[in-house]
Design brief:
252 residues; alpha/beta; Endonuclease, Chain A; 2 domains; 6-stranded mixed sheet; 10 helices; 6 strands
């Protein structure tokens, strides 16, 4: 089939679906030639290939973001480091709107801004879904100190972070200014893990005008090591929540 090992693993573990054409080629190889059974399996394959809800935003969202959400929906763990903004999956509607209005001209693209805010809102549901991944977020202190929109908008966003931090599958840590230089200063990134199998991990690196998604085992392993090094420079979860509350009070 000329597949990569990573693709094979994901299909076998039901992390991604198989195309109808690939299935039709494989069925005779497996000795399945009965027409009724073949039709049944083909219909199942078609149903499995139906796009996730996020694919309805393909006209406004970058394809890399939609691919990332695809991976997150099948992940066992997600590790994300941010230097500027609250991670999209943790953003409130009004915070997301403030950020997107800066990135896009709302006067010329109001529909795009509204649709992207809606996408981020729906994406939050993954945090509390059945079999939700374990999320580890590490944020530079500048993320919680920088005002986005009005002080009230930022304060409510920080209060939302505190509430999300109470979820059993979420950890939020802050890299404090007092820690000085740290290994994450090159920029934000995210690593999506699948059942703790290194060969299946995916790294997402968003840069200025350029986004990288890689499943190379060596690269994803390096990003996980980098995340661990940044975590070692961070405050503990409880201390981080305290700092976020302090920042929220200062914004109010």
């Amino acid at each position: 089939m000329d597949w990569s090992l990573s693709k094979m693993n994901r299909i076998e573990k039901a992390k991604s679906s198989i195309s109808v054409n690939d299935l039709k080629v494989l069925l005779p190889y497996y000795g399945i030639t009965d027409e009724e059974r073949t039709d049944e399996l083909v219909e199942l394959a078609r149903a499995a290939r139906k796009p996730g809800w996020w694919r309805h935003y393909s006209d406004v969202a970058p394809p890399e973001l939609l691919e990332l959400i695809d991976y997150e929906s099948a992940a066992s763990a997600v590790s994300q480091f941010e230097t500027m903004f609250v991670p999209g999956i943790l953003q409130t509607d009004e915070y997301a709107s403030a950020v997107l209005q800066v990135l896009y001209d709302e006067k010329t693209a109001p529909r795009k801004v509204a649709a992207l805010v809606e996408l981020r809102t729906k994406r939050r549901d993954l945090l509390t879904s059945e079999n939700a991944p374990y999320f580890s977020f590490v944020l530079d202190e500048s993320v919680v100190r920088r005002r986005m929109g009005s002080p009230a908008v930022t304060s409510r966003q920080l209060e939302h972070l505190v509430n999300v931090a109470k979820l059993p599958n979420v950890t939020i840590q802050i890299v404090p200014f007092s820690g000085g230089l740290h290994p994450g200063m090159e920029g934000p990134f995210e690593v999506v893990q699948f059942d703790d199998t290194p060969d299946e991990n995916v790294a997402f690196v968003e840069g200025q005008g350029d986004t990288l998604i890689t499943d190379d085992p060596h690269e994803t392993k390096d990003f996980l090591k980098l995340f661990q090094r940044i975590t070692e420079k961070s405050l503990a979860h409880s201390d981080s929540v305290g700092l976020i509350l302090e920042a929220a009070a200062a914004m109010a």
